[in-house]
């Protein structure tokens, strides 16, 4: 039998081409996983296995709600993946050390070995019970972000490892019994709840000697089950363990000595265990072990996100932390938006635009550069404009929030408005807040609520009526003012700075051309093809990658029975009042008073300039007198 060599050669070429280009057949677009078959895959691991290795751009795998009983691995060849669940998305498994030939590091439910992985809105659990080491999350990837996730387990719940890996946990819930957060990675835990189910140890770090930071807990809350009363903050798994708690709330279950050396005296000489500014019954430092540390003001200033994630002393491994670079966290002040730049822009389309003269008023007292809060060594400042004439009764107060796309602008923007309102009997506060060049959402909300609580705490000094406080803002400041009004006293948005004993509630909202919804059809935010809108920089995610965050950050998402009366002052730019009419429908439903005044053929920045400035002042004053019952 003769062989057709030409045919064989062609077949071989085809096979080589197929296998040589197999990655070209791999998926590099967004996917949906759904147990009911309504998505692209029924199983999470199947979706991960289908994705192209070394992705050039981030893709999102959305996992619909349900319990996925899977043991899942994201291999080291996969990167740039966001895995986002719905409210009830659970990844569950029950392996444990000692099950067959299994060891601790094989017992995971989810293992993340790839870099640049984002996890969000997931419940990850190990249901093996109290049988020893049983890991829920095993994560070794670098530059990984974990947001709004819950990790359920007992001993060794989270293994955060990788000598050169950096991981950021935000707004997460983590529970366990013994050493339930352990490993060698550099990890920042922010605004997390850390829950001890039994007496034991929260952390067991194995930080390499040459790594600067280890585990850092900022603004976290440490809680425990009712019968738990003997918990250590940590013990060293390896000799150079580093763990620091900053501005955390420590429950009474935390032992007075705080830390344990794991039975080795030499560990007391090499570990770095430290605290700063924590509160609660477990935060008393007078009985702490002598080899632990209380950070100084100078030391605490070094614990910034940029420093923690800037890399390690090993120069060959000092890759740059991707998220701040990509989303523009520079730490520098952006001065591109000012009243003058807005004037030049408005003058082009509206020649009648004229600058309102900046001048002090003889009847108004100005007090400037007052510190209302601190983030590390970063002072947060505000200015106060109040009537010079003494009043026998407390006066109504107005917080005025500047605009600038959450990225630029400054508190001097509305000085003249503050003066005019102070002239009419209001005490006006103009606070600064961290912009997106310095910190992502919701840092600005936290700062402004800190300022509001500061106003109440210092009400006597400034002679203000704590039951008559309004919040007013323009553009991004209008959105922030509305958001503050609809989320008053909601612990999710309060932050951990300032005196939490005082309320963040307001009695009136004035929204000047601030969007009410980032996801409304009328909104222009996030719809640009490059994904570089102001809101994208503020949230750290394009809308398509995290629509739930964009929705929850919208005032329209939270409006309800407790929303205060609201005044809307709008330009003729329709997209700047996206969601306003729907917002008002909810107010009407609850019989809450609202007003709308639209300035025909007016630019977005109308409130800053003549001929619109004085009518703006009159509308605000009339609304506040009515809603705050001012006589």
Supply the key terms.
Pectate Lyase C-like, Rossmann fold, Pectin_lyas_fold, 36 strands, globular, Pectinesterase, hydrolase, alpha/beta, eight-stranded parallel β-sheet, 16 helices, EC 3.1.1.11, Pectinesterase_cat, eleven-stranded parallel β-sheet, 631 residues
Poorly predicted sequence stretches spanning 5 or more consecutive residues: 5-24, 312-327
Q: Helix tally? A: 16
Q: Can you identify the CATH superfamily of the largest domain?
A: Alpha/Beta hydrolase fold, catalytic domain
**CA-atom Rg in angstroms:** 27 Å
Q: What would you note in describing this structure?
A:
The protein is an alpha/beta fold. It has three domains: 45-176, Pectate Lyase C-like (3 Solenoid); 177-314, Single-stranded right-handed beta-helix, Pectin lyase-like (Pectate Lyase C-like, 3 Solenoid); 352-627, 3-Layer(aba) Sandwich (Rossmann fold), CATH 3.40.50. The chain has 16 helices and 36 strands. The strands form five sheets. The chain has an eleven-stranded parallel β-sheet with strand order 1-2-5-8-11-14-17-20-23-25-26. Strands 3-6-9-12-15-18-21-24 form an eight-stranded parallel β-sheet, with no helix packed on it. The longest helix is centred in the N-terminal third of the chain and has 16 residues, at 5-20. The chain is globular. The chain starts with a helix and ends with a helix. The relative contact order is 0.06. The model is unreliable at 5-24 and 312-327 (pLDDT under 50). It is an enzyme of class 3 (hydrolase).
